[in-house]
Amino acid sequence: MLNQNLVRGLFLAAVALFFGLGALRYPIGNLSRTGPGLFPLLVSGFLLVLAIATLVKSRLVQAVPLQFSVAKIALIMFGLCGFVLISQHVSMLLAIVFMVFIVSYAGTAPSWKRNLAISAVLAVIAYGFQRFLGLNLKLI
Amino acid sequence: MDILHNLAFGFEHALTLQNLFYCALGCTIGTMVGLLPGLGPLATISLLLPLTYSIPTSSALIMLAGIYYGAQYGDSVSAITMKIPHAASIVACIDGYAMTLKGQTGLALFTAGVSSFIGGTVAIVVLAALAPSLGEVALLFGPADYCALMLLGFICVSVVTTGSVINGLAMCLIGVLLGQIGTDLETGTPRFTFGAQFLVDGVSLVSVALGCFGIAEITKNLDEKSERTPFNGKIHLIPTWPEFKRIWPSALRGSVAGSILGILPGGGPTIAQFAAYAIDKKVSKYRHEIGTGSIEGVAGQAAADEAAARTSFIPLMSIGIPENAVMALMMAAFIIKGIQPGPNMIAKHPDLFWGLVASMWIGNCFLLIINVPLVRIWLSVFKIPYSVLFPSILFFCCIGTFSVNNNLEDIYVTAAFGFLGYVMMRLALDPAPLMLGFILGPMLEENFRRAMLLSRGSFTVFVTRPISATLLGVILVLFIAQLVLMLRARGASRAGKPVAASERDTIVASPESARN
């Protein structure tokens, strides 16, 4: 079981180190003539302090189990990425159907009839956006 | 007299057919997103932001503002009828739902609607009177003062939305760091772009907002698998005269509390509701009934909720500093439309400022009609299953992202922020402070660098300037207060006092409300 507090501390530390070490690649300058790296370095330093405080706190308080459902977020990511690829290479109408069918598996009791109905309504809305709001959607 | 003259000028602009249409549209959308789960005003405004490019400036801002304050009305309906506080009506669940259990749903809805109207009206008067004079005060602010004000905003938002200064502040800082991606405006150096051309202009605000609030929220709701039972009870809306007489004193108290708390940094509807409820519990003639389903328990908080939503526009429009995440997004809307909110905004764009203020009152009237006589229609919204709703919201997230640059690949960035937002939610890190940090980050850096340049690299400029020193003093007091509260809560929990548990519940409950 992963401890939510501990993972939170590690996550914050990773973000702080990512931006902090990245900031060192840019000129730092001095306080009166600050370079592009100084401000992100200061902010990441402060974030690192908060990350360390979170890590220390996680050792002192009772552990909270981390709940994370990989399947649902993965299905949604897959649906969105598929939407982009199909829109680029085939058509947006097909991309809508693909996305609706894929993401419906992240919900409860997916039904192909309902999915087709949702896809049809969204296709009409997309047409409305293209026709009346002037959005450059490649529907077919 | 000046205010009346200016308001008349505002009504001239707000009462055009086009602005009336967008005001009604904003209020209707706002009410709907207030009712629906998983789609708060923050996600909706970010969703519609790119679509407002083709709408005239004042109409677009009137519509977006309508969504924000309209959501506060709609939220009360779901809280009262089904005990679902989607956006910011946690307190309405207490007495409002208790009234539903007593068979007084109609009275509770009428009370919430009328009180929100009173709250909104009082707040508009405060907004019209205070915003211009506060704008004059803002002209005294230097770069160091702006830095201190933004830091105060970060601290206040962290305390209010997450209940934990460490978590909230960490999210603000992550937001500031995400705002660093792109070209440094002073030196032209690309930062954290890793050679990717699409990052040179920085990360799109719409991608961050839709990812962290739209996609992440949907995934979280799907994880919870909570089933909703539609409300099928009877509604008798018209109260008796003695019942009506009990509404307005509480509503007025709530309006004053909400108007004041809405202006303060980090303030907004959530904290205002709790404050109004606490005031009524102390001073109301019927205080012994509060908590068991009383009119006062609904009226005060509904008025405070609505008043705070309106007055939170004051710091944005007069100083140019948004005080919460929704206002940060409103600020982005102003900037997209080529308007810099701040001390000069009222002088430069009087039609826009006074038109927006006047439209708020018109919106108030629309909302009263939408939420009181037409409330039965809105309750049918709950019958839409979430399995139909969430693929549609995902589709709108895609279209919203695409429409910013007409670039489908931007959806990858939104999806990445959706994943990041979901991870943060699972780690109990509220994304609302991140949004504020992301929007204020570049402004904070600019003012920090300017303050350092003017003081020749000396940090003493932050304590020698009276405004900055005062604001930093407030931050220090807030830190000490948080520390004392934390130590007291720990002491009480060790002693096994039940008070600590209820305090903790309140704190845990508030992020849900503030997030939207």
UniProtKB/TrEMBL annotation, chain B:
One Pfam family linked to the record: TctA
The keyword Transmembrane helix appears for this protein: yes
Name of the protein this chain belongs to: Tripartite tricarboxylate transporter permease
Residue ranges annotated for the DUF112 domain, each copy included: 20-436
Protein's UniProt keywords contain Transmembrane helix: yes
Listed transmembrane segments: 20-39, 51-71, 107-131, 151-178, 198-216, 319-340, 352-372, 384-404, 411-429, 467-487
PANTHER family linked: TRICARBOXYLIC TRANSPORT PROTEIN
UniProt keyword annotations, A-Z: Membrane, Transmembrane, Transmembrane helix
Top-level division of the source organism's lineage: Bacteria
